[in-house]
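hey all, quick one before standup. I had two proteins in the batch that finished overnight and I want to keep them in one place so we stop losing track of which output belongs to which input. First protein below, input sequence then structure tokens straight from the run.
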Amino acid sequence: MKKYLPVITILALIKLSIHLIGNRNYGFHRDELLHLSVSEHLDWGYFEFPPFIAFVGKIAHFMFGYSLSGVRVFSTLAGVGILIICCLIAKELGGKIKAILLAGVSVLAFVPFYRNHMLFQPVAFDQLFWTLGFYFLVKYFNTGNVKFLLFLGVSSGFGLMNKYTVFVWGLGVVAGLLFYKKGKIFKNKWFYFSGLVTFLMFLPNLIWQLNHHFPVVLHLQKLKESQLDENGPFDFAIEQLKHPFSLMISLIGLFAYFFDKDLKKYKTFGIAALVIFCSMWITQSKAYYFFAIYPILFAAGAVKIEKLLKKKPKWNYAVASVLFLPIIPFLPQAIAILPIETYVNYSDLELQKNGRIKLTDDYADMFGWEEQVKLVDSVYQSLPEKENCVIWAKNYGEAGAIEILGKKYSLPNPICSNGSFWLWGTGTTSGQVCISIGNEKEVVERVFKDCKLLKIIKHKYAIEEENNIPVYLCRNPKINIQQKWKSLEKRVFD
């Protein structure tokens, strides 16, 4: 193993270095603000996701405060872990130094991973736990040591406490294990102990879901209506074709699991990949959910290519170059390695007639939050009756900005009926005075008698949803917000 460490270390440092440059730029994404907000309200579950991200957020805050690069380093470390584990899987599959190199480069060359491993989201950890689970399985196949089944149970438990897509991963793995030594593993009591460990780790979230009437069902329903139903029947599959060189490595790996004389004993992984792909395609899942499967395919593809080039080993370096070099021009679009003005010029983006520059949604969602919070703070500080004031945000992005970025201004936590923010209620103030951000005129006038428009917030780079948003100062509520709050539960995802 020692002879492989320099290669793995160099590849890991390359990925880490790229992220250390990119992670510090622009600002928090709206989803990051939500994930940090839930860390301020630790619980065993939330409306949008299980609690793992909240606990990581709490650790991040303890170590770095709400530093952009400090918070994001956790997702990056998950990404570096994926690269390292992919290399280790290649070794377990029988690969030598060239296969380990190709496996690591395959991870480096997969463009979506840069976005996934920059933002503080459950996605990076989801991919990590999928890859880790496969690693423990291949270790069990190679050694027969049941401790790896228990490790599999622990990693699956953490995975479920991070993102529910692990259920689909589990479906694929169980289907694949039916073909491993004719399903012999299902006669092993330690396999069921492993499942019990996973269940016990997941149980607190299951109880939380039960006590809150399974909001995950409502969330999935609204997600389907608002996003997934818009997908065409082939969009999921077409999205996988956008990265041809990485796709080629993965298809070679998939082929090897079924037809290579040395690798077909691991066909469990090939079957799992096919079952997961079909399940996600049928259910119109988001394409990036499937990206978590690629490391196990990259590893097998790297091993197969090393075997094919056994007589011409130097050609492995050519393959590695063909994988990585073409993606370099696309890195600024995948991770924020360029300052925004440089990125605008690099991407040849033009100033529109309305004075705005249209960025990709992910980048656009990192702008405007600081300006919103500064404006709200200026209004809040001017109020003589601060003790009676609530800050009412329309959506979780605006609420997250007030909750997290507002800490340095000592702003009170916002109230918001969008997503998990509904769980935290209407605060402790009377609400006789309200600063509303994002809510339209007809909405605030249904709740308050006196509503004064203070400003329409515009931002050159912000996403359209956060441009031209109104800020109102409202007084004299028409309704009792505390009494009304309970009835808003079924509309948290509207």
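OK second protein, same deal, sequence then tokens:
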Amino acid sequence: MQSDQYSYIPILMQFILAVGFVVGTIIISGKLGPKRTSEVKDKNFECGIESVGNARIPFSVKYFLVAILFVLFDVEVIFLYPWAVNFKDLGIEGMLKMVVFMALLLVGFFYIIKKRALDWE
């Protein structure tokens, strides 16, 4: 093998170790896990409170929209950290690119405010 192919050996070893750990954990839990079941053990509960009603209650779309918007803006803010660390090295070009990025972020934020996506009813 060539020398640059040897650099992939640690990645292959980590992949084999990760897959082996997952498969081993599944096999061991099947062999060592509890085997006796009963109505009381199989009963669902949450925080010590007996469950009442159906668990398939539909959620409002508003709930999922707020969650997706939170993740979207959270991921976009993550891009600010590498920029802040390398601020001096990026120069004026990096500053202009970040101004454009922040402008797009603010346009999206004002759009969802205008559409009243964050208003909870």
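Flagging for whoever picks this up: The beta strands are 45-46, 49-50. The chain has five helices and two strands.
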